[in-house]
Design goal:
- Chain A: It is a multi-pass membrane protein.
- Chain A: Its main location: membrane.
- Chain A: This is Carbohydrate ABC transporter permease.
- The structure holds 2 protein chains of 2 kinds.
- Helices cover about 80% and strands about 0% of the residues of chain A.
- Chain A has helices at about 1-35, 40-45, 55-65, 70-100, 105-115, 120-135, 140-165, 170-175, 180-190, 195-210, 215-220, 225-235, 240-275.
- The longest helix of chain A is centred in the N-terminal third of the chain and has 36 residues, at about 1-35.
- Chain A is globular.
- Chain A starts with a helix and ends with a helix.
- Chain B is built from 13 helices and 2 strands, in the order H-E-E-H-H-H-H-H-H-H-H-H-H-H-H.
- Chain B has helices at about 10-50, 70-75, 80-110, 115-125, 125-130, 130-145, 150-155, 175-200, 200-210, 215-245, 245-250, 265-275, 280-305; strands spanning about 55, 65.
- The chains are: A mainly alpha, B mainly alpha.
- Chains A and B meet through helix 1, helix 4, helix 5, helix 6 and helix 7 of A and helix 1, helix 3, helix 4, helix 5 and helix 6 of B.
């Protein structure tokens, strides 16, 4: 009994306490932002944020004056469009990488990994020139295309590793039963990797929702995703931290919630390759 | 000599068609993704290289004169380039190890048994999910010179005697942003390393305890070798990511005060965005990419040697 209590105390000192400190560091800034957003603007500079008398005033002003709903719609269109483009193009490619052997397979697969590492600044300049020539500047399509440069390679890799986890014997069984290659893929493999497709789709959505530099460069006037709107607010409402932090909380909310929902599966998928390699 | 039975035409055709189909199908399934990436990634990249060899300023779009390597030789003379390069090196050399160490500590803790472990594991990745713009906004508020909570805390504890304008002071701005980036990126390390830790069989530790190895020795001889693969990959990915990352800096300081927080990708971006000089901006982007590529290759070579 005494021994048990002693080891619990030891655990609290060596594990729980340091863990709690790290969590304070991790969550502190976010909670501070949330608290600020719930404090009335005039109290902010006299007493500072406090947990007593919280108000929704800043959020009401955000949607009434700043027109945040429009920006959220823009983000939603761009992020959903990127998910659709990214997934449709990558699922068949991933099936091909996983199930067939062909020349240059390794090189092709590797180039999808490498693309993800190219500096964004290398692509953002020519994409701007290109979109300008095509007359696509400030459209949703331009942002969807730009975000796809990140989404396609990423989802090819994720989907290849998911499909690799499904035994090849399933395709073969379906084909012995009279399915063609394509219908084996559509009817047997795709339903089985639905969880993978959903997780990849959600990750693409989050990345596209959070993306900022493409949105700033290729959008801006008609199409102004939430990240650009938040940044513009920083310039316009410089000292109104209550309003600014409310914008930050709202802008981050969809991605944060989605991330918490899928984190287990996603982290599993992301780390699998690294642990094996 | 026995005669080989020759199959007639009708039998060949389906077999040949099936073989052709088998060869074409994989490529057909691949081609949409490959063609689109060619169009939206490789073609623009080549265009960057091409633009870097020309005078190209956006408000004079008709003028696109071949200048060869002029921009590149100008870069070598450019003081801002060397300042940015120095900041980029500092930026990577501090941020990546800080993220890795904090991530390692977090992963080791999360690998222990304690009642609220699932909650801690879910919450630790929140910084990863937040948009860079929001992160920048949040930390700008923390660093605020008049009402920021950091100054407030440090003044109350008595570490500071008067508040510091963290982001407006050229001596502290870069380090303030480095702390922000460390905060943003360490959960990635924690998650990767945790996956590595969980792949080490428990029996190794049990055997080592039986032989009387201390926990420090167990860490050195079992844990570190066990996660070296993951650590290697994570450091590589993060180095590239941190080097490229410029959105947090752009929102927090825009490179200022002066050039105090310029890094190479940010310099290239600003050159095109504010000066509209796409020729010189492209040359800067190319130079940065080649330098980064050099570091990656060097890292891969040295690590390959360390493994063998």
């Amino acid at each position: 009994m005494a021994l048990g209590r002693k080891s619990t105390l030891r655990r609290i000192l060596t594990v729980d306490l340091p863990m709690a400190l790290i969590l304070v560091f991790t969550l502190g800034p976010y909670l501070w932002m949330a608290l600020t957003s719930l404090t009335a603007e005039d109290k902010l500079f006299t007493r500072g944020p406090s947990v007593f008398d919280l108000v929704w005033e800043n959020y009401a002003r955000l949607f009434a004056n700043v027109g945040f709903a429009r920006n959220m719609l823009d983000s939603l269109i761009v992020a959903s469009g990127t998910v659709i483009v990214g997934l449709t193009l990558s699922v068949t490619a991933a099936y091909s990488f996983s199930r067939f052997d062909f020349r240059f397979k390794r090189v092709l697969l590797l180039q999808f990994l490498l693309i993800n590492m190219f500096p964004l600044v290398l692509l953002i300049l020519p994409l701007f020139v290109l979109m300008r020539q095509l007359g696509l500047l400030d459209t949703h399509l331009a942002l969807i295309i730009a975000n796809s440069t990140i989404a396609i390679p990423f989802s090819v890799w994720m989907m290849t590793s998911y499909i690799n986890g499904i035994p090849k014997s399933l395709d073969e069984a379906a084909m012995t039963d009279g399915c063609s290659r394509l219908s084996a893929m559509v009817r047997v493999i795709l339903p089985l990797c639905a969880p993978g497709i959903i997780a990849t789709g959600i990750y693409i959505f989050i990345t596209a929702w959070n993306e900022y530099l493409y949105a700033l460069t290729l959008g801006g006037q008609n199409v102004r995703p939430i990240t650009v709107a938040v940044q513009t607010m920083i310039g316009e409402y410089q000292v109104q931290w209550g309003l600014l932090t409310a914008g930050g909380i709202v802008g981050a909310m969809p991605a944060t919630l989605l991330f918490l929902i899928v984190q287990r599966r996603l982290v599993g998928g992301l780390t699998q390759g690294a642990v094996k390699g | 000599m026995t005669s080989v039975p020759v199959p007639d035409r009708d039998e060949i055709a389906p077999a040949r068609r099936a073989r052709l189909w088998r060869q074409v199908l994989p490529l057909a399934l691949l081609s949409p993704a490959v063609l689109v990436t060619l169009a939206i990634v490789f073609f623009p990249m080549v265009q960057t290289a091409w633009m870097s060899l020309h005078d190209y300023v956006l408000f004079r779009p008709k003028k696109f004169d071949w200048v060869g390597l002029k921009h590149y030789s100008a870069i070598l003379q450019d003081e801002v380039f060397w300042i940015s390069l120095r900041h980029t090196v500092l930026w990577i050399a501090i941020t990546v190890p800080a993220q890795a160490l904090l991530g390692l500590a977090t992963a080791l803790l999360l690998n222990q048994k304690f009642p609220w472990r699932p909650v801690a594991r879910a919450l630790i990745i929140i910084p990863w999910a937040l948009p860079s713009v929001v992160i920048a906004l949040m930390w700008a508020w923390i660093y605020d010179s008049n009402y920021g909570v950091l100054n407030d805390l440090l003044l109350r504890v008595g570490i500071l005697e008067q508040s510091i304008p963290w982001l407006a002071n050229p001596d502290t701005a870069l380090y303030a942003i480095i702390l922000t980036l460390t905060w943003q990126g360490f959960p990635f390390f924690a998650v990767m390393i945790l996956a590595g830790l969980q792949s080490i069989p428990r029996s190794y530790y049990e055997a080592a305890s039986l032989d009387g190895a201390s926990s420090l020795r167990q860490f050195w001889h079992i844990t570190l070798p066990g996660i070296s693969g993951v650590l290697f990959t994570a450091i590589l990915l993060r180095t590239i990511w941190v080097a490229n990352s410029m959105d947090v800096i752009f929102v927090m300081t825009g490179g200022g005060p002066g050039y105090a927080t310029y890094t190479l990708p940010l310099y290239a971006f600003l050159e095109a965005r504010t000066n509209l000089d796409f020729g010189y901006g492209s040359a800067l982007a190319m130079t940065f990419t080649l330098l980064l590529l050099g570091i990656v290759i060097l890292y891969l070579k040295r690590s390959a040697k360390a493994v063998h």
